[in-house]
Amino acid sequence: MSIDQEIEKAAQILAKASNAVASCGAGISAESGIPTFRDPGGVWERVDPSEAATSEGLIATLKRDPQKLLPFFMELLETFERAEPNPAHYALKELEHMGILKTVVTQNIDNLHLEAGNTDVIEVHGSGFRMRCLSCEWSKNYSRRELISRIKQKMSDADSFTFSDIVELMPKCEGCGAVTRPDVVMFGEQVKDIPRSFEAARKCDVMLAIGTSGVVYPAAYLPFQAKDAGARVIVVNPNENAFQSVSDVYVPLKAGEAMERIVKEVKEIVLDKK
Ligand code: NAD
User: Fold this and answer.
1) What is the Å distance from ligand 1's center to 274 Cα?
2) Which pLDDT band holds residue 117 (cuts at 50, 70, 90)?
3) Chain region(s) in the chain for CATH 3.40.50.1220
């Protein structure tokens, strides 16, 4: 089938849906300027995940050589500060508005689905803009620019850093005054809200798998669970991914273009029926 036919088929399926779920990976935010980690040229070609993506490895690296990861952190801050929702995020919001999409399950930590306007967003890898206390139950959501400008301001006041300087960059717990950390899931840590995500996948009528390679588990189970429970599966990804065997429709385009075109056709189908 041609890409036009795949888009037409995706739109026909979605136009009949009332309980769709989108399972999204880093690819949906690539057009917001946040590069994926695993693709060619991605972060993991430059930074060793064992030094930066596990909490033990990160703490050990920062204690051994506090300057080593600063360029990486600066790059992350700049990238996340500039990022805004792109047409794919807004397309998901429109699908929710039309009563087609119920839930977004995202592996992303960038807050862009909520900023685009989706209301039921399950952040299985947490959020980079929620800080949680390491000592008590306290946590707080910050606005993207508030948190980043606060951290950048503190960074610009110093030329070099010790481990404790880096810890001091984070806001203090407003409950007990202890140290906080971003509420993101590092390698080896417990993924969040998986029972609710699996339930959404098992109950949905359509599963949209957007910008996800399907190699990060347990999130990668979602399209398979949905398919097993009888849902149609629509995959949007310009590159090969793990969902080929379960996809009813495969749109090999970037998320922004694909989702914009799909939602435009859904609207035409829905309007024709009125
Ligand atoms: P991943 O394994 O889901 O791979 C990214 C996928 O996106 C690939 O399959 C790639 O083909 C696809 N892709 C690339 N550009 C695309 C585009 N424009 N449109 C649609 N698809 C596109 O994710 P990863 O990069 O290996 O990251 C692993 C984990 O790291 C994620 O699960 C997430 O928790 C975290 N992460 C988050 C962000 C974010 O918050 N935006 C960014 C990078 C990584």
Assistant:
1) 38
2) very high
3) 1-34+85-125+191-274
